[in-house]
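Could you help me review a protein record that somebody else here produced? This is what I was given.
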Amino acid sequence: MRLKKLMFLGLLATLVFSCNKDKSTPETIPPHDRGEQAIEDDQALINYLSTHFYNYEEFENPSEDFDYVVRLDTIAGENSDKTPIIESDKLITKTVNYKGIDQQLYVLKIREGAGAKPHFTDSVYVAYKGELLNEAVFDANHIKSPTWFSLGRYYQLQSNGRLALNGGLIEGYTAGIQEFGEATGFEVNPDNTINWTNDFGIGAIFMPSGLGYFSAPQSSIPAYSPLIFTVNLFRVNVADHDGDGIPSYMEDLNNNNDILDDDTDGDNLNNSSDADDDGDGTPTREEIVINEDGSIEFTDTNGDGTPDYLDPDFFK
């Protein structure tokens, strides 16, 4: 009897261990091929653009109380005579290479915007709404309440002495928002609200999942979901993340739209986050000349072809 009891307990323990092991190690599903997914998503986007319209009539003849917000809807029923987005002369196609794959980004430029356009490293003050191709809205919090976003990633020193990587948006949003310009001015009302000059950028960005979250589902976004963002761009701030006097976009020395892989002094801190780019002990700001008009002169004192701020062999 004792032997049978021990055998039963051993079998039970094996079953329990096996069940726990199955729970803790779920089957890993490899991500989709990015090239194949890009083709599938592009067809889905084309289908959407062919069957949906935006409120172009409101933009063509705006009422006094029109809010200049883009609204998308299906061409059906009482809207069956509307012009599809794909036929709009305001729709452009932009090829974006990301992770080695060329993908199609569609940008509806209802109004380009009269002010400056952002660089891929800048900060933008934008109102937006995000939705899926099935019209499910995953973010509408900021369509009436604009917010600041840093398009570029940068390192910031924390109170604990460690560096934290901040900023950065999904590739499709960054590539799309660069097609728009900011407002040329604004007025501050007595209640501290702002009236923007009515020349800010307005439009929508339609992106494949490969320029969005791809295989990583978000709280309201399933994996492999193409995304749509309607946007109103109000303000652009040219970023200088390390405060060295050189705008961050100019610190992309290899011109690959990635400022994290430019590290002249090899200290594991990229130039756009490093106030002494060449590590010679002299701050970058002291090795360049900033003119009154804001232009920058990159001096090369020893004439070796490398500007002082990137040349560890020259320092003050």
Remarks:
- The helical segments are 2-24, 34-51, 56-60, 171-177.
- The mean pLDDT is 90.
- The first helix runs from residue 2 to 24.
